[in-house]
């Protein structure tokens, strides 16, 4: 396997009865890349992502994530990836510190390591004053930034972000993307879904799923040229509306 | 007979959800409440739809007082909450019949109003609401909010989490409902949707930052904004943030929006600085403000 390709997907398919939710998708993602995974609601993004993070068995095709097989090595995949979504983030009734300790523990970090990580993370996010407050009381934007940092606590090779910025205010949304840039700069691969088309522009490459298939995959610049569109929103509308 | 809101405040224990909010929505207007989660949008909707009582202030909807005339308001408004609130274990048709009956009407009587939207979900009329896709649920919820022919329609974040294609279709539907004379108050966290409203209020932390037409709001932005690009976005953002004269630095799609503190700013000077930071393929062009620029500038101060 090519060491630079942290995700390798070939003809990956998932069927539910007669319905083909994901239809033979193929792509590779390199180390440190920010990969935007776009598509309309119901296009198959979530199903595809579930296969890649090892919680849904494909019907056919091949995929390796962080070097591990999505059929047989799902536990290894889970240890080597981070995951956050808008829906599942942190425990509201645990404090900031408790959440960090909990997730550090889940990933098998030593107490010493958890303490180090916890201090560094709280300082970096400027959460010193609220470190012992319940997460539920924090503004959404803070929660999402904390949640992203926690998803990186075990230094995963890849982090999967499922609509991480939905409903977040525009300033925090940008701070969030600066954190993504930083993680990618440090070599973490970022796999992200979003409905904000300006965010699609922040990605190194973008794929667009339509009815279970990947209908376009390239850099935002090339996609705009290919579809003669002024921005990614137009690219999306042209593709998804047919 | 649209909506009047005068000095409305609401607190939950220590949290000031709304602080002295005042604005009017004119009859037949499509008015947008633009702000992130936690801004107070839902609290305001619940006060206007008589589901919550304000701590202070007055408000009327379709000419009725939200406290004294709450029963009249409930007959005359449609409300689509942000959270899907239909009966998951009733079918599409059953949900719609239920809401029509509650309001003493029938689907047939007001079918004209919902026809365009309903035909899109009619193929699934015998499916349980809980089994519908996000887009379908949203259309059903809109039909249920319209079935009694309301004068005023309240839509709380109808497009959150919805893809750009469905969002565009949804706004086209709203425009057509407006043409039928319905006053619409809609909230959204998507700033690009603001441009589709007649007027908007920008709201954050329970306070109105500004109210005007979308065109006027972007004109109020006082500083020149520059689109800046270079070969490496991460380095570019870091370098711009370290630049001593920066007023704001925000990633915006393929560019960074940059404003300078000084009144006389020379882009060449910035270019030289960026070159000294080892950035290449530098591009600096003046651009126009968007609603999002305005929002961020107002939220910052």
TrEMBL record, chain A:
A GO MF term: ATP hydrolysis activity
ABC transporter domain location: 7-236
Pfam families from the UniProt entry: ABC_tran
Keywords carried by this UniProt record: ATP-binding, Membrane, Nucleotide-binding, Transmembrane, Transmembrane helix, Transport
Gene Ontology cellular component terms for the protein in this record: membrane
Full protein name: ABC transporter ATP-binding protein
SMART domains xrefs: AAA
Principal location class: membrane
Domain of life (superkingdom): Bacteria
Entry keyword annotation includes Nucleotidyltransferase: no
Natural source organism: Psychroserpens burtonensis
Matching PANTHER family: ABC TRANSPORTER G FAMILY MEMBER 20 ISOFORM X1 (PTHR43038:SF3), ATP-BINDING CASSETTE, SUB-FAMILY H, MEMBER 1 (PTHR43038)
Bilayer topology term: Multi-pass membrane protein
Localization in the cell: Membrane
From TrEMBL, chain B:
Highest taxon in the source lineage: Bacteria
Location of the ABC transporter domain: 3-230
Presence of the UniProt keyword ATP-binding in the record: yes
Pfam families per the UniProt record, alphabetical: ABC_tran
Gene3D superfamilies: P-loop containing nucleotide triphosphate hydrolases (3.40.50.300)
GO terms, molecular function: ATP binding; ATP hydrolysis activity
Protein name: ABC transporter ATP-binding protein
Organism: Psychroserpens burtonensis
């Amino acid at each position: 396997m090519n060491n630079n390709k942290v995700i390798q997907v070939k003809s990956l398919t998932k069927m539910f009865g007669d319905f083909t939710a994901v239809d033979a998708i193929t792509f590779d993602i390199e180390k440190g890349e920010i990969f935007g995974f776009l598509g309309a609601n119901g296009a198959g993004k979530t199903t595809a992502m579930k296969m890649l993070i090892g919680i849904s068995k494909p019907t056919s095709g091949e995929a390796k994530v962080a070097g591990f097989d999505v059929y047989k090595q799902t536990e290894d995949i889970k240890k080597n990836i981070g995951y956050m979504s808008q829906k599942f983030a942190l425990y509201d009734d645990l404090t900031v510190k408790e959440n960090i300790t909990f997730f550090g523990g889940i990933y098998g970090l030593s107490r010493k390591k958890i303490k180090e990580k916890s201090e560094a993370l709280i300082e970096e996010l400027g959460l010193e004053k609220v470190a012992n407050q319940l997460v539920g009381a924090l503004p959404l934007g803070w929660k999402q930034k904390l949640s992203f940092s926690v998803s990186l606590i075990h230094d995963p090779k890849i982090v999967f972000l499922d609509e991480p910025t939905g409903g977040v205010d525009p300033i925090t949304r940008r701070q969030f993307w600066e954190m993504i840039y930083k993680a990618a700069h440090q070599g973490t691969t970022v796999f992200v879904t979003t409905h904000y088309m300006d965010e699609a522009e922040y990605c190194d490459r973008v794929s667009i799923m339509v009815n279970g298939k990947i209908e376009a995959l390239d850099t935002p610049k090339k996609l705009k040229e290919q579809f003669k569109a002024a921005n990614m929103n137009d690219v999306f509308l042209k593709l998804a509306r047919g | 007979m649209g909506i009047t809101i005068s000095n409305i405040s609401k607190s939950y224990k220590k949290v000031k959800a709304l602080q002295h909010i005042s604005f009017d929505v004119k009859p037949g207007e499509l008015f947008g409440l633009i702000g992130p989660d936690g801004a107070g949008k839902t609290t305001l909707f619940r006060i206007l739809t008589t589901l919550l009582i304000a701590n202070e202030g007055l408000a009327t909807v379709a000419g009725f007082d939200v406290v004294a005339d709450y029963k009249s308001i409930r007959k005359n408004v449609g409300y689509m909450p942000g959270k899907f609130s239909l009966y998951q274990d009733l079918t599409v048709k059953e949900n719609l019949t239920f809401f029509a009956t509650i309001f003493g009407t029938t689907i047939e009587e007001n079918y004209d109003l919902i026809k365009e939207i309903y035909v899109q979900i009619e193929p699934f009329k015998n499916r349980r609401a809980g089994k519908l896709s996000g887009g379908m649920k949203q259309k059903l919820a809109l039909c249920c909010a319209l079935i009694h022919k309301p004068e005023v329609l309240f839509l709380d974040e109808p497009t959150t989490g919805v893809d750009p294609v469905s969002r565009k279709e949804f706004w086209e539907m709203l425009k057509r409902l407006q043409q039928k004379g319905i006053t619409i108050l809609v909230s959204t966290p998507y700033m690009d949707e603001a441009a589709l409203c007649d007027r908007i209020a920008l709201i954050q932390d329970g306070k109105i930052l500004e109210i005007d037409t979308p065109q006027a709001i972007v004109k109020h932005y006082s500083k020149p904004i520059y689109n800046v690009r270079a070969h490496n976005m991460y380095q570019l953002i870091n370098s711009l943030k370290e630049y001593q004269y920066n007023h704001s630095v925000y990633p915006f799609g393929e560019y960074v929006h940059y404003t300078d503190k000084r009144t006389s700013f020379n882009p060449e000077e910035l270019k030289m600085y960026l070159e000294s930071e080892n950035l290449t393929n530098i591009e600096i062009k003046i651009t126009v403000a968007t609603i999002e620029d305005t929002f961020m500038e107002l939220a910052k101060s």
